[in-house]
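Retro notes (design track)

What went well: tokenization of the new backbones is finally stable.
What didn't: we kept losing track of which sequence belonged to which structure.
Fix going forward: every design gets posted as structure first, then sequence, in one message. First example under the new rule, 205 residues:
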């Protein structure tokens, strides 16, 4: 019995040794090298701030105020100014000047000339306005002379507004002068009925 037990013990020991040797050896995990990039994350750049420069100065227009004003000459006014602003900049009209025919609320344009109390000539430009020149020419019983009348004087005629008055001036500029009252019929906007109302109130020189 002792011999048999010894043989069995030796067999068990041999089996354990064989089983231990047959197991695979553990493999160590591979090491991944760490590469330094040399880049550091810094703070984000500050956002660009809007420009805080000085505000733009308002646009100016240059107007020539001439005639019967206290301080005639060149005045500089903000864009969008009106005739009343130009008169104020020139010291106001002289005493006794009639301004009833003047549109004080009219907008001014750059380079314009405003004549106060002085009649504009027949060839005055579009940028020139005569104001305060009194009643229309009265050489023939107060009739308006089609060849010398200003825009404001034509506007005093019955049924003639600023648009039609400008058309009369445009016709005169295109043809040189009126040689007959009947030529009013050639102006756009003047039909027979309106011509009948005007022919006894105008004349040609």
């Amino acid at each position: 019995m002792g011999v048999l037990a010894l043989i069995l013990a030796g067999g068990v020991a041999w089996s354990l040794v064989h089983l231990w040797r047959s197991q695979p050896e553990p493999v160590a995990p591979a090491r991944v090298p760490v590469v330094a990039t040399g880049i550091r994350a810094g703070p984000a750049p500050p956002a660009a701030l809007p420009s805080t420069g000085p505000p733009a100065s308002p646009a100016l227009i240059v107007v020539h105020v001439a005639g019967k004003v206290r301080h005639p000459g060149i005045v500089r006014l903000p864009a969008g100014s009106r005739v009343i602003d130009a008169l104020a900049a020139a010291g106001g009209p002289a005493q006794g000047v009639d301004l009833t025919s003047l549109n004080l609320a009219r907008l001014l344009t750059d380079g314009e000339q405003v004549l106060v109390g002085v009649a504009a000539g027949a060839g005055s430009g579009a940028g020139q306005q005569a104001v305060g020149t009194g009643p229309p020419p009265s050489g023939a019983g107060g009739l308006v002379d089609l060849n010398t009348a200003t825009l404001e004087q034509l506007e005093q005629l019955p049924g003639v507004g600023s648009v039609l008055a400008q058309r009369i001036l445009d016709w005169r500029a295109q043809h040189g002068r009126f040689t007959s009252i009947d030529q009013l019929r050639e102006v756009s906007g003047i039909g027979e009925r309106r011509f009948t109302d005007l022919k006894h109130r105008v004349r040609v020189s």
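Added context from the reviewer: The helical segments are 2-22, 83-89, 151-155, 162-175, 192-198.
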